[in-house]
Structures
1.
Amino acid sequence: MVFLDFEKPLESLFEQLEKIKQVGEQGDIDVSSNIQELEGKIKNVRKEIYSNLTGWQKVQLSRHPNRPYSLFYINTICKKFIELHGDRYFKDDKAIVGGIGSLDGQNVMFIGHQKGVDTKSRQYRNFGMANPEGYRKALRLMKLAEKFEMPVVCLVDTPGAFPGLEAEERGQAEAIARNLMEMAQLKVPIVVVIIGEGASGGALGIGLGDQVFMMENTWYSVISPESCSSILWRSWDYKEQAAEALKLTADHMYDFGIVDGIIKEPLGGAHTAPDEMAKMLKRHIKKVIGELSELSVKDRIKMRIKKYEQIGKFSKKKKNVRVKQGS
Amino acid sequence: MGWFKRLKDGIVTKTSDKKEAPDGLWYKCKECKEATTIKEITENFHKCPKCNYHVRIGSYDYFDLIFDGKTEELFTDLLPEDFLNFQDLKSYDERIIAAQAKTELDDAMSVAIGKVHKKPLVIAAMDFSFIGGSMGSVVGEKISRSVDYCIKHRVPFMIISKSGGARMMESAFSLMQMAKTSVKLSELAKNQIPYYSFLTDPTTGGVTASFAMLGDINFAEPKALIGFAGPRVIKETIGKDLPEGFQTSEFLLDHGFLDFIVDREGLKEKIGDLLTLLPAA
């Protein structure tokens, strides 16, 4: 098991639990009561730790190496799933996956960022950082979904769009911008769920939808806390402060009205009970698709546009009077 | 007299007797380092007369260069606000106040309606001098309202981008302005109103990855820096020096992301042509 720095109190408890279990297996001593006691303790400590997570701790959880990724969820919640590849222009991006799945009889187009589970596959997936062809593949699949009238589900989990030389040559900015404009007018429902990291334009590039949700221990921001620290504090050491200042947690995003809901995670995070998490995700997606499908295409697009049109905070001054501020 | 023959040590001229060139009289070109008078630069379309470097100018300078004469500024009632109480080394509030004092602008974008060769056009122009031309809620709202205005009056729309990207101090709200502006531009497109996107030095980050790349026509000033990620970030990522001319207007034209590059001297003429050849349907 991997323990994050703030999970240290749990580590020794789990070690004790392992030892007791071993003793129980070896001899005839009955350890069931000790095990029960320890498990109760673990639960309490977990509750305590997880009820007061800081922004930075949630960022760490969202990057937990055991956290489930898009393909796990899709394969778990769909009876059938055909993965589709390629943008038809240049290449197949491994950092964004997609395909058609059957969700209890309803065909759904799934699109999601994909990270790897070990060093080799992490490199293969480019750490979930997509190139332009990834966004163009996503758009191709969305258009396919539109043609055959199936809803689109986007699972967002990326540390950002890849900042590489070739990415610029092939128009990273254009690819993301094009998706935003096309997703605005897509005729089928779009449900977005942030399942891990939601970093900047790379996340938004498949993140515009009718309804947007965040899992409990995820984040959404215009910039990662590390990069924010390096730019505004001119040092990499202020990531905790940056995470606080950016107010990037699901709770904040929900309060701001930027996301429409939070999907609870099992105690300790999605990785502690992936199947349970997948079940909750499935229930949620099905419910929202059902609701969105009842709207007419025209109404749905109208609502989508209104939803984004309203986002923004500013103050107003009296007409034509330049308000002098400060000294 | 050489310094080695100096009779007295140090600088003896009193500060009050110091002879200085008055501020704002001379301009040293960033590109060729030649000094020119501000007057010469201004009369030369804000370009260096020696090397043709396009000096970074503000929204009102562009309005002067492009519009026939009389213009009306739109949506002047919007002010930025530090609603997140964002605090880094300075608070966002302090940054706003300092930027407003320095630039005498409310935020990083001004919008105006006017005529170009007698044809109406709405221009939303960004000011890099205001917190790096960063896009926050005010910029998003000004674009959003401009789109509504252009649809209502069936007037073509042009944005002059000049920005480092999204404004970090507005966190997710600034990110969402990418969505907001793109969504609005999709409405403009649906109404068959042309949108000309004019990219100037620099256009990067969330601005490039939203409205700047979405023009029916994308065009840029010569040698402008245009990209998604900043050159420093890319250099750190790939661990190599970047090729000459990477992320310039010319590079983007060559890679198929711009329709053309226009010298500031011919800018007004070109926009006039666009209004004739690609008007509202």
Note: Residues 171-190 of chain B form the longest helix (20 residues).
2.
Amino acid sequence: MGKTPTKEPAKNPLFWILWLLIIAVSVPWYFPSKTYEPIVAGLPLWALVVLVTIVLYAVFATLSAYMFWR
Amino acid sequence: MPTAEITPAFGMEAPIVAIAFVAILIFVGYYSYKKRVGATIYDFFLASRLLGYFVLGLSLYAAQYSGNSFIGYAARGYRSGFVFLMYPAFMVTILPVLLIVASRLIPISINRKLTLPTDYIRVRFGYGGSKSVIEAILALSLVFLVWGTFVQFFEQAIAMGYLGEVISAGMFPYMYMVVVFVVGVIIFTILGGFRGAALANAVMGLVMLLGLVGTLAMVSKDFGSISDAVMVLAKSKPSLISTPSTTTGVINWFSTIALVGVGAPLYIHILQHVMASKDPSTFKRTFLFTPYFYILTATSLLFIGIIGASAIPGLGTMESERIVPLLVVNAAAKDPYSKVWGLLWLMAVLSATLSTAATTIIAISVTVVREVYRAVRPAATERETLLVSRIILALIALLAIPIVIEPRATIWRWTEIKFEGLIQVFPAIVLSLYIPWVNSKGVLSGMIAGAITALALTLSGTATVQGIHAGVIGLILNTVICLIVSRVTVKPDEIAYAKTLLTS
């Protein structure tokens, strides 16, 4: 591997760990299939959890650009 | 099957607003041309690396969100319900992938004055391997890159066809709208070039966001909120608000994230945006706001589709492609405020569609001119090349018409098909940025294996295997073969050359 003087996201294990973790949580495999209950705040709980994860995913994208890339 | 009723809500104001808006955009493009920004090839296509981060970010956003999203993906939300929450997820996945690509590609592009993905491939594999191997890699990459980008272009024409037909209550048929749109795009791009398109894209990005949020508010007011839709669907069609019904559905969710997340950053026009960045920090700053624009847009469109499923249920697959304009037109017929929002929405979709169409078609024409025409006529002058690129641009745009006159698949299916091929350039462009021992023989063998797999599965009617897309299976095989062949055949001087290039 070439040595680079700059910090790159792809070279940081934390970037990969957080990324895989957030993708894993953003897919609702951990909820039972074919269910929509309970409904919380007008949305099925599973969809709400996925939505919150997606917002965190966006925050991760911004932080990655600033924390892992110099 | 019930058919949707189209209320003629808009009179002449819809075409007047559309024409006036497009005229302003054409002026923005033409203004930049008059200022002689488009005088040389380099200027014409790369805006001389002058784009600031806000314009660059908005332009990238407008290029990623298109008529497909505004028409086709909301329609997929109508058909699939909350399971299509994969949509905001795969859109935001594009960003970390872009980050990985950009953090290496921008410095190399600036140092070596590279402007096109094929420039990078040529430089990266131009040492050590035989000439025929590098030519074959370039030819195959060209096919995938142009294919993916061209489908993205003609999807815009399909979206515009549906839109015009519904908004005009059938007065302007689908086919007529497709032709008007393609001709409009040709004029728009020839007058402005990349800078014109990028500036206009930034304007369009803002209009899109505003129009979209307004549309969600309007649709919620007239047809009930997303929570109301959940209550209705819980009784009438619970599958639309439920978790995926099988393990295959869950696997397909992951596969879709991989397919689009890896594929979308590889469009020629997106790579061109990356390579056009003034410096890494300009590109980095776009991440301050684009992730939120991405998820807000995708989630709003999904919600509009789901509200549509509760308000106008029972549309067939192809008919549901018109769900968003149907909702807007029906809302506009109900009250005058919605009519105003409806006109803003019209400008938003025009923006999304036109910005993507313009950038994709420019990207294709410059690539074809550089890789094909200049190879045949290396002595061509700048002036001649620019003229030929405009002719090619017009020809390629016109080529879309016979394809979309009869849309054989939904916009979403076209999206899958385009990415099945496009992602096969991943090892050539992304792996090769980080692994110095990835060589031309490895990339070529992998690409051939991946392409044959994806193509064979798709042609045999196997879109997915256990939920995994044909293209993703092809890419896995592609990557494994690329790594094995590279490892076995790479020579020390090839590694040394790649290391120097990648870390310069």
Note: Chain A touches chain B through 43 residues (CB under 8 Å).
